[in-house]
Amino acid sequence: QSALTQPPSASGSPGQSVTISCTGTSSDVGGFNYVSWYQQHPGKAPKLMIYEVSKRPSGVPDRFSGSKSGNTASLTVSGLQAEDEADYYCSSYAGRNNFKVFGGGTRLTVL
Amino acid sequence: EVQLVQSGAEVKKPGESLKISCKGSGYSFTTYWIAWVRQMPGKGLECMGIIYPGDSEIRYGPSFQGQVTISADKSISTAYLRWSSLKASDTAMYYCARHTDDYGAPFDYWGQGTLVTVSS
Predict the structure, then answer these.
(1) What does each C-alpha distance from B82 to A7, B30, B35, B72 come to in angstroms?
(2) B residues 49..108 contacting A (CB < 8 A)
(3) Would you state the torsion angle of the CA atoms of residues A101, A104, A12, B107, taken in this order, to the nearest 10 degrees?
(4) Is the CB of B45 less than 8 angstroms away from the CB of A99?
């Protein structure tokens, strides 16, 4: 069982917006502004999409945005495109002993 | 260009030992942490542990302490993940990933992954 809870699936039609949640505790998501989101296409390595809750690395489209409220972080993908279909994982810093914890992943389907 | 290049796929029997590698290039290998991340078949990501090649400081995730050994050789910019006695449950894809600190920094670059299959 993963430390952070994500819905197993999400979907939307091209052009629509979809939001994926990531729920943790005050020891991880709620305790630090160090939530990251990773995109993983089948057979590929994960790719960093969002870090520090809402920052985008260079090259990531601004259709991807992140936020956090309490112990729950969210990733929103606006203007869905076919290439956004992938698995998305959230991650949070969880203190010196646990370091980084991940969610179980959400499979995003573009209908 | 930052790259992390991992060693190739392995097929091993239970009880055998194994060491896989992750070679960094395009950046200062000794000033970034390297993490090892496990992905079991059809499952999510798990951080196994991290190493700072500059001084070989190592931290293991609670579930992985005593199960694997992480090391690095900074002279050849390579990090390693070693098992002394593999189990079938070690079958997984293993990724290395770079991060700038042992606090909240994200994993900004990833290796291509090494598939380890353990089967009798």
Answers:
(1) 33, 20, 13, 11
(2) 50, 59, 61-62, 95, 97, 102-108
(3) 40
(4) no
How big is chain A by its Cα radius of gyration, in Å?
Answer: 13
Give the residue from chain A lying closest to B59, CA to CA. A97
Q: Say if residue A98's pLDDT is above 90.
A: no
pLDDT in tens, A12-26: 999 999 999 999 999
Strand ranges inside A1-111, DSSP E: 9-12, 18-23, 35-40, 47-50, 64-69, 72-77, 86-93, 100-102, 106-110
- Cβ contact B45–A38 (<8 Å): yes
Partner residue facing B45 (CB), from A46, A93, A96: A46
Q: What is the dihedral of CA A105, B61, A99, A36, to 10 degrees?
A: -20
